[in-house]
């Protein structure tokens, strides 16, 4: 099941970069949540499925261009840990690079929760892994 979960997350990342919101939310569970409680900036909190789409659209509208670059997809049972870099260009031409790690929780083929962590180590710890565990898998 873990590889299937990775494929679901990869498809969601691709849809995010295309701004294809229907495809992005295709595999979301009806009660899915996105946890941005650790975020820095105006979009902070825990958002239900009906709330997160406007938040993501608002985030995207503040940028001339945005691209999320996942570095790897780490399988951890029902979870997929994705360290990534966000590349953005503001409307005034200023470039921004931000790094974070997301933990995607997927059960029965549906995305139940996406949680943002500022540090990769925190995300790994949240799913019961360490850096050593990830090096053994790669």
Features:
single chain; 138 residues; 7 strands; 5 helices; alpha+beta; Nuclear Transport Factor 2, Chain: A; seven-stranded mixed sheet; 35% helix
Description:
With 138 residues, the chain is α+β, with helices and mostly antiparallel strands. It has a single domain (2-137), classed as Nuclear Transport Factor 2, Chain: A. Helices cover 35% and strands 40% of the residues. It has 5 helices and 7 strands, in the order ααββαβββββαα. It has helices at 2-18, 21-24, 49-61, 120-126, 131-137, and strands at residues 28-35, 46-48, 63-70, 74-76, 79-90, 95-107, 110-117. Strands 1, 2, 3, 4, 5, 6 and 7 form a 7-stranded mixed beta sheet that branches. β4 and β5 form a beta hairpin. It is globular. The two termini are 18 Å apart. The model has no long low-confidence stretch (mean pLDDT 91).
């Amino acid at each position: 099941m873990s590889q299937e979960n990775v494929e679901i997350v990869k498809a969601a990342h691709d849809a995010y970069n295309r701004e294809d919101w229907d495809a992005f939310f295709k595999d979301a569970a009806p009660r899915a949540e996105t946890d941005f409680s650790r975020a820095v900036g105006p979009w902070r909190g825990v958002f239900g499925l009906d709330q997160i789409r406007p938040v993501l659209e608002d985030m995207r509208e503040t940028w001339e261009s945005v691209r999320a670059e996942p570095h790897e997809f780490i399988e951890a049972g029902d979870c997929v840990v994705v360290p990534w870099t966000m590349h953005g260009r503001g409307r005034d031409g200023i470039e921004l690079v931000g790094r974070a790690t997301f933990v995607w929780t997927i059960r029965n083929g549906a995305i139940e929760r996406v949680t943002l962590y500022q540090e990769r180590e925190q995300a790994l710890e949240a799913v019961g892994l360490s850096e050593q565990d990830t090096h053994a898998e790669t």
